[in-house]
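ARCHIVE CARD
Drawer: 12
Card no.: 0347
Subject: one protein chain, sequence and derived structure
Cross-reference: see card 0346
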Amino acid sequence: MNPVVTLGRKTVDLKFKALGLKIIQDIPTDDFNHILDFHIENGWIKTYEYDGFDAWIDYGKIKLSNAGRKMKFEWDNWSEGEISGKAKDI
C-alpha cells in the first residue's frame, strides 16, 4: 500500500481511538452489502445517501442513525467497503 495512504489511515485510526470510534476497512463488497442491509432491516434509519453521477459505480456513501447513534458506510471500487461509528456500535 502507498506509504502516504498508510500514514493517513494510521492518523485516522488514532483519532478514532481517542474519540471512542471504530473503523473497519477493506470489507469485501458482498459482505459490506449484507451488513448494510442487516442494519437497515433492524431499525437503523438512512439519513444520507450519496447520489452523485458515479453513485455505487465508483463511490457510495450512506449514513445511518438509530436512537441518537450514528454509523457511516462508504464504498469505492478500489478498497471496497468501510464502516465507521462508535466502537460499541461497530
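Annotation on reverse: The chain is about 30% helix and 40% strand. Residues 3-86 form one domain.
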